């Protein structure tokens, strides 16, 4: 399978998983979207679950966002999220819609931990850094849920700089609580 075919399968899978969820998306539907045989998809990805994991992996430049000063991370992270592309939106929706699929729940938990919580936790100090990293992940997910799942028009239409300032300040308070020594 060529790289372009693999990429086409992953793009189709991401779109279908985002639109229909994990349970209602079949390997055959993904294969049909690309114009290949379902057996080829399984031969390459080994299972629907592994295809899902490959399709929803985001190659985000998240580390670049984390590399700046922690004291300004909240607004920087919100700005980064507001600039996310359609693929990121599709991946987030696929993850939300697959969160109740037993086959992928543990994969989602591991991915959440490895891709967001752990890198963020490494940047924080203090006795409750682990909790603050997890709360920050919840706050980030809330913004994405408002924008991409329920499509809150007021949030989407708000001036970007105002959303960055307000939501970024809320996130920053979790990351570096006022009056704390860390």
SSE topology sketch:
Layout: H1 3-20, H2 27-34, H3 38-45, H4 48-55, H5 62-66, H6 73-82, H7 86-98, H8 102-123, H9 129-149, H10 153-157, H11 160-175
Helix pairs in contact: 1-2, 1-4, 1-7, 2-3, 6-11, 8-9, 9-11
Detailed description of the structure:
The chain is mainly alpha-helical. Helix 1 (3-20) crosses helix 7 (86-98) and helix 6 (73-82) packs across helix 11. The protein has 11 helices and no strands. The chain folds into 2 domains: 3-55, Homeodomain-like (Arc Repressor Mutant, subunit A, Orthogonal Bundle); 62-175, Tetracycline Repressor, domain 2 (Orthogonal Bundle), CATH 1.10.357. 74% of the residues lie in helices and 0% in strands. The mean pLDDT is 86.
Query: Any guess at the CATH architecture of the largest domain?
Result: Orthogonal Bundle
Largest sheet: none
- What is the C-level CATH assignment of the largest domain? Mainly Alpha
Class from helix and strand fractions: mainly alpha
Fraction in helix: over 70%
Run of helices and strands? HHHHHHHHHHH
How would you describe the shape?
elongated
CATH topology of the largest domain: Tetracycline Repressor, domain 2
Quaternary organization: single chain
**Number of separate strands:** 0
């Amino acid at each position: 399978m060529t790289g372009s075919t693999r990429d086409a399968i992953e793009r189709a899978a991401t779109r279908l998983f985002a639109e229909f969820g994990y349970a209602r998306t079949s390997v055959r539907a993904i294969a049909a979207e690309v114009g290949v045989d379902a057996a080829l998809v399984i031969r390459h990805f080994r299972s629907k679950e592994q295809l899902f994991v490959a399709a929803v992996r985001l190659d985000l430049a998240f580390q670049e966002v984390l590399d700046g000063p922690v004291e300004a991370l909240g607004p920087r992270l919100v700005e980064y999220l507001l600039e996310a592309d359609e693929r990121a939106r599709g991946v987030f929706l696929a993850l939300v819609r697959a969160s109740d699929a037993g086959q992928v729940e543990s994969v989602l938990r591991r991915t959440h931990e490895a891709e967001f919580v752990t890198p963020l936790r490494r940047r924080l100090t203090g006795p409750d850094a682990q909790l603050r990293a997890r709360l920050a992940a919840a706050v980030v997910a809330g913004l994405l849920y408002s924008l991409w799942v329920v499509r809150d028009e007021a949030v989407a239409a708000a001036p970007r700089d105002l959303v960055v300032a307000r939501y970024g300040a809320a996130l920053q308070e979790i990351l570096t609580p006022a009056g704390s020594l860390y």
